[in-house]
Fold these 2 entries.
Entry 1:
Amino acid sequence: MGKHHRNLLNELARLRMEKGLTQQALSESAEVSRKSINAIENGIYVPSTVLALKISKILGCTVEDLFKLPK
Amino acid sequence: MTYLSRFLYLFICGAVQIFFGAYLFLELMGADLGWPIKGNAMFIPGILIFITSGILTASYYFGDRKKNNALYDEYTALRYYKIGAIGYALNGIGIFILFSIQDWSNWDLQSANRMIYQIASFAWLIFGILIVWFSLGDYKEHKNG
């Protein structure tokens, strides 16, 4: 499962897999590169608000389900 | 435009820039390399950058939208900004050093001219290295990342 960015915890990999989507399929729906999705899942990159909203819409969850601030 | 073609365009531009930038910088710093490059050949890296910029800009505005969503996405832009910022920082340090090593006690127009060329060739060299770095990282991430 994915790693977390120091400023952002993410559940993207888990939620994506639950939906049965590949990184490629999700990236095409979200209109970004596959490496962006991979970078988010591995805590390398914090997505923009627009991209976070797009991903949450595709996965049918809220942004808070996907991303959380570390305590 | 594909990841491979973008890699090739940028890598070739960067490599040519490194070659000419390094050559000019070493010559200006007093290293006699012994194989002169004809003056007109110095236009080659500039022409390459000009053409490549044109191709990339055209592909951004007129290329396939679906492909461009991936090619020019926000993560790629962030990598580009970071590498650009490193370039400006290195050039700032380099210009400071080049200023510091000049012989200001015997300053004349020729020295000023030489220093301007030193700064230009140094910046050229740094941005050449960074273009190669960006192209390699971008393509590697596309394949494995």
Entry 2:
Amino acid sequence: MTAPNCSFLGLDSLWIQVAGFSCNLRCAHCFNASGPGNRELSPLSRDEVKSLLDEAVAAGVRDVVFTGGEPFLHPEMAEIAGDALARFPVTILTNGTVVTDRLVERLANAARDSRYSLEIRVSMDAPSEEENDRIRGKGSFEKTLAGAARLEKAGFLPIVTAVQFAGDDTPAAVEEFERIIRERGIRKPRVKFLPVFRVGREEERSGGYGEDDRVTAELLELLGPEHLLCSTARVATSRGIWVCPILVNVPGGRMGDTLEESFRPFPLAYGACATCLRHGAVCANAATAVREE
Amino acid sequence: MNEVSGRVALFGGVYNNHLALAALLGDASMRAREIFCLGDVGAFGPHPDRSVEILREAGVPIVQGNYDRSVGMRRGDCACGYTDPRDNYFAALSYVYTFRNTSERNKDYLATLPEEIRLRGPKGERILLCHGSPRRQNEFLWESLSPDPFLARLLDDARCDVLAVTHTGIPWKRRLPDGRLVINVGAIGRPANDGKTHVWYAVLDLSGEMPDAAFIPLRYDHERLAQEMRVERIVDPFVRTIETGWWTTCLEILPAKERARGMY
């Protein structure tokens, strides 16, 4: 069976794998197997990011998303965020465990000086310490909530991002998270659920996708390419441009050396593509997600 | 194509607020020669047919919003573009009320509305009126999520010099470095999440060297609207927004800057 192509509709979101795969945590389900000592991708320098931002201006990008690994392990992350915020709305995806007061202050200054929003997405995986730490590592629950509280104190509204192991994103499931976030003094709790992607370290844990877990031409036709991040986003890394954050470093996910080269349709040949299409608006913040009716 | 000049009033997001709509027609007729509605006649407020009929009677040209399309096409939801379950929960409440209380005749009318209106200014300016964005009826153009290069791309693709939208409910405008203008006219159906009970619309001024827009605060009998909503058993969070000026629902769609300014 030939995989159906996802059209490229224009670059709305530029993702930047600023910290490579380097992370202080080693989460059991990490879709790109980030962790301490993972050097398959290198961090990007501030100058490298600046030239990507120039390309983003030319492409008419709507927002820039920094991911890793853990972006805040990058020693210049606050300055890089400031460079990006001068021209674009910015989102940073963090595990929240290395968010110091000094870092938060620098970020808050950058956010205040910009007319655009700085979103900080903080990853957690369960509203209880025991369940969360089983997946993300001992002590991460407390450290992450303390990081989120520090961000809130400086005026940020962190979005707690949780992988949906229970398979439930009803208002009741959201309330569980809201309750524990509120307990830390966060007055406007924001929660986003992500589906489980059975790739990376999660593939080892749950056995990965079956051969039938694929996007069919019929389903793509029905839901439309707008449901897929790859219709409007690309990921820049130390090893070129990749189609989406989930498929970075997966053979076949690399789209070229430059952004311009990557602006072409992508064959949806992976199990992860089926998860993305079924779930819709997977990697976007609520505010940037666009769902076709 | 319609030629326009002088001042043009632009409003959107009526959300069944027939009292604000009646106030708007009076206020705008003193400030502008022509009036255009950018869509979403239905939503949180009471008695949807009243707003549709006021607009039809006044002969106001209307751009179709996602709500108008959904009601007109007899769809099961408002297609507002929310992605959060909490937002969708409240969106469904107001949609079901609006759908049930809109006459078949008015549904048919909403289905016929155009998705965009193009106007020509006195210096040949190409003016585009649409609901969400030129590329999608339910795309949210928030001020803090609309960088200049992105807006320039939207205007290039849509071949226009002035773009006016609504859909988000909070007014803002941006002059691009090359002089082109983007206006989000806000909404007259509910306050702009600023703790004030008045609502907003825009007046596009084509008489100067370059097109410009001013935002006009519009007062109306919001206490009477709240009373009507209670009688119709519309849920309390929607009524409180009308009474206090703070949004209480559909907040997850807001970007950080806009969310931080509100109470909730």
